[in-house]
Amino acid sequence: MTNLIESISAYQDELVAIRQDFHKNPELGFEEHRTAARIAAYLNALGIPTHTGIGRTGVVGVIEGRSTTSGASVGLRADMDALPIIELGQAPYKSCVPGRMHGCGHDGHCAILLGTARYLSQTRRFNGTVYLFFQPGEEGHAGAREMIQEGLFERFPAQRVFALHNWPSLPAGHVGLNEGPMMAAIDRIHIRVQGKGGHGAHPHQAIDPILVASQIVSTVHTIVSRSVNPADSAVVSFQSIQAGSPDALSVIPDGATLDGMVKWFKPQVQDVVRRRLHEVVSAVAAAHGAHAELRYDELYPPTINTPGEARLLASVAQRLLGHDKVDAQMEPSMGSEDFAFMLQQRPGAYFRLGQGMQEGRFLHHPMYDFNDTTIPVGSALFSALVEEAMPL
């Protein structure tokens, strides 16, 4: 199988050029028009039947093997969108779009799947059909759900689905996965605190919403430690508190808003956290004579590999890379991933492809950059998986 990596490495320069072009021209979720057009053009040039506009800006390529008598089919997904981050790196291909960058490596994921497309379309050493899912809007836009709602699996009935994500904390070219939960679910919380405005020198005449919001934050952070079973995992974090104006000296505002997120793996944990959030928010506000309302929005479910597909993927990776480069019992991440929606519809597996640690440059960091040397490895893994799952 090592020869497979060598075969794909023959056109690595081409794939790197494509990846760096994507990096230079990042597009946010559901705005990936240029990216989608470039992907579609590449697939069409390979003679691959290509469908566009699925899930708004999604692209699907269809590759049939030398035979399709097995009736088997596999879906491979790559996400296309960038992030609203100002890039601080100085690569010659750094983002030319202000306030936009590929800080999560989706540019590399697309290049990997295009490398897979080229190899499989040229060799076709499998019996069945491969669907290449280039998905928009992974970063908080639920692009996978959008594609599914627009009939993805009715039009392209993949029986099993697979996806990868680059992972900076793994050595370059190594693989990590497990047979169960890989990524946590994510829900969004929005809290509106209604107090009573007043003069900062006369706080007894007001109901300070900033104080109430601060108390809510402190109390909410006891939910996981005191209401969730210690054997389970959950995270509650706030990313924003908005109240008043820095220019309004000695003014107590009349309201405040808080925004945050909840992460979980088990539905019963979600139930506990959601119930306790409502109780805490209401009780803390009432204790101060204020009023508060919580809006709780479910975003992504947990990303959970099915055991059979995870074992298949691990076996392929071990033969391709060697047992020492594959961790088949990798610890789950509390990050989230909307490939979870596809795994709710079909059995499949999600794995991590090591990038090699760059000092301080984690995913979503303004200086993060995908490791181009891993493109042939990712393409080879996808290709070998197809050939193993649908042998001639």
Give the structure's gist in a few sentences.
Its cofactor is Mn(2+). The protein is an alpha/beta fold and 392 residues long.
Uncertain runs = none
CATH fold naming of the largest domain = Aminopeptidase
Tally of individual helices: 12
Q: What's the mean pLDDT score?
A: 97
**Form type:** elongated
Annotation, overall tally of beta strands: 16
Give the CATH architecture of the largest domain: 3-Layer(aba) Sandwich
Gap from first CA to last CA: 16 Å
Q: Could you state the order of secondary-structure elements as H and E?
A: HHHEEEHEHHEEEEEHHEEEHEEHEHEH
CATH superfamily name of the largest domain? Zn peptidases
Number of domains: 2
Label the structural class: alpha/beta
Radius of gyration: 24 Å
What oligomeric state do these chains adopt? single chain
Largest sheet: 8 strands, mixed
CATH class of the largest domain: Alpha Beta
Kindly report the spatial arrangement of strands forming the biggest sheet: 1-2-4-3-5-16-6-15
Beta strand %: 15-25%
Q: Estimate the helix proportion, in percent.
A: 25-40%
